[in-house]
Amino acid sequence: MRKMLLLATTALAFGFGTTAGQAADLKACWVYIGPVGDFGWTYQHDQGRLDVVEHFGDKVETAFVENVPEGPDAERAIERLARDGCGIIFTTSFGYMDPTLTVAEKYPDVKFEHATGYKTAANVATYNSKFHEGRYIIGQIAAKVSQTGSAGYIASFPIPEVVSGINAFLLGAQSVNPDFKVKVVWVSSWFDPGKEADAAKAIFDQGADIITQHTDSTAPLQVAQERGFKGFGQASDMIAFAPTSQLTSIIDDWGPYYIHRVQAVLDGTWTSGQTWDGLKEGHVVMAPYTNLPEDVAAAAKELEGKIASGEFHPFTGPILDQAGVEKVAAGAVLADGDILGMNWYVKGIDDQLPQ
Amino acid sequence: MRIELIRRAEQSRRMALLSPVIAVGLTVVFSAAVFLISGVDPLAGLYQLFIAPLTDAWSLSELVVKAVPLVLIGVGLAVCYLSNNWNIGAEGQFTIGAITGSMIPLLLPDFQTPFTLPLMLVAGILGGAAYGLIPGLLKTRFGANEILTSLMLVYVATLFLDWLVRGPWRDPMGYGFPQTERFNSAARMIMLGDGRMSVSALVTLVVVALMAVMLAKTLKGFEIKVLGASPRAGAFAGFSAKKMTLFAFAISGGLAGLAGIMEVSGVIGKLQPSISPGYGFAAIIVAFLGRLNPVGILIAGLVLALTYLGGEGIQVALGVSKRMSTVLQGVLLFFVLACDTLILYRVRFISSSRKAGAHA
């Protein structure tokens, strides 16, 4: 029995130690915070990976690890991929920042790309998208559609990306209705369909009639659909989950970026840097404007065009903070760095940021 | 045919040794079937799951890194469970230990001496023990159910950590992101080799040895087991169940706290909202898988760590879902616990024809 086991293990070791490493020129790998089936953040990153597969065919092999928590396990998952022969590794959550840098230091020949962080190195680049551009558009739509003048906003964590999204949403709404209210509910998770749904129910019970979210599941929109209210999709086009409720969705399209960066590694032209693109470059895409009066949809399309062309910037002054202090002077535009580190609310938000 | 379980007169020693082997065997067969159904080469799957993590130095050291907190917390919990105290809150004691230990580098950043790390470890132990004593005291003073209180205190601890890293302890240079500054080098664990394995592995081995001796060879160990088996008998022997409750909670809280601060000063290097992927809960499984015996717990911790690493391996190498590894992990635990039945019971197969005959 023992001998057989030994034989079996040796056979296994030889048989499968060699199957890895086929003819592909490059192995591109991803680390995901959620399940690939979240239909939100991680799903869209995986769609980007599949775009890479489709674009490069046999030239590029891909692999991923999903559901990796932002604790001690992250570093192991990243290092495993680096050891497994990945030439470029995309780590797709903020909490992977330090682990990514630690592993990158040990593997100088591997290229690392960290989404949503701010630390770089010779072989670590960062990338993110200007989601606030889309948030301004949906804010404006919300103010036009809402009967009660009040929207709910389901938020994950009070990090700058989320805060700037809430601000952009309200600024968009205020451009239509200066008294528009937004209720922020923090669920302290990126993906928790149960909690997100409960938050959505609470928001509707409190009199809001439109909902938006900075979390990754389809649950809030499904609640809106059930109750006959309106809402916006997040990260992916969620129209299938809310056919008569979704007005539009802010879609993250990572495919072009991933293809571009993988190509750069293949060409030997990859360099570190910080990429922050939006509607203009097609990294942020608005889903079709549905369930809307024609004039509202047309206005939204026009605004989208203006933001994409650079004619209009969502953070154009005058912008006051909650205390009434002027943060952006009339006519001025907030600098990118200030948006990326935003930790204050604009006037009119009915919530306190944890300080 | 019918299968009957017949209670053995005494526990089978042969089965005590054989049942884990049977369990692993059944898991292998079941896993192979799952792989086959999902269109994955079962041999490749089994290799990635159970053997690949053992084939190189890096994954072996990662195995140790993953097992350390599970084993440390597990041996502490064993003292609780053997003495009939149901501490479910190790995750919270782990978190508080990490916080109290981190106070030294975060509040006294200029205190960088060879004593910094040892003092942090002591602070972590004391913090975890104090937090563990809360449900202990609530039980001895007010008769509150320790399962509920210790579990609820987990949420208090993790939310407290969350508040700290978003509020008073947030790194002022961190763009508002929820994390503390990185610890200075005097506050980091001493590494063994160039991987992530640190002296925490040695500390764990020492703790396992000490606990094994205490449970097997000392009066205290006898007291723990007697009070667990029969509080009345213990009382006749002059042992105090109340003191034992406090002792058990202090030991397991302290060890969980030690695991917490070693994890934070070792592999993470700062405080952040999430510092544990549920070690405090997984360690409950480890404690029982190891039959509440320190050496058994050491082995069980390594086995559970192996399934985590193997689970990642099958994702990367074979492109299967993480859910698959979770299922197989559950299956392993199920078979181990189910096979324990064989220690207490004998299986008898009764053919239906004979049964029919008997009734005729």
UniProtKB/TrEMBL annotation, chain A:
Tagged with keyword Signal: yes
Signal peptide positions (record): 1-23
Species for this entry: Methylobrevis albus
Coiled-coil features, chain-numbered ranges: none
Gene3D superfamilies: 3.40.50.2300
InterPro entries associated with the record: ABC-Purine-Binding (IPR052910), PnrA-like (IPR003760)
GO cellular component: plasma membrane
Keyword Signal: yes
Domain (ABC transporter substrate-binding protein PnrA-like) ranges: 30-303
Protein's name according to its UniProt entry: BMP family ABC transporter substrate-binding protein
Keyword list, A-Z: Signal
From TrEMBL, chain B:
Compartment(s) of residence: Cell membrane
Location, primary (coarse class): membrane
GO molecular function, one term: transmembrane transporter activity
Alphabetic keyword roster: Cell membrane, Membrane, Transmembrane, Transmembrane helix
CDD domains xrefs: TM_PBP1_transp_TpRbsC_like
Domain of life: Bacteria
Membrane topology: Multi-pass membrane protein
TM annotation in the entry: 21-40, 63-82, 94-111, 117-138, 147-165, 197-216, 246-268, 274-290, 297-320, 326-345
Cross-referenced Pfam families: BPD_transp_2 (PF02653)
GO cellular component: plasma membrane
Name this protein carries in UniProt: ABC transporter permease
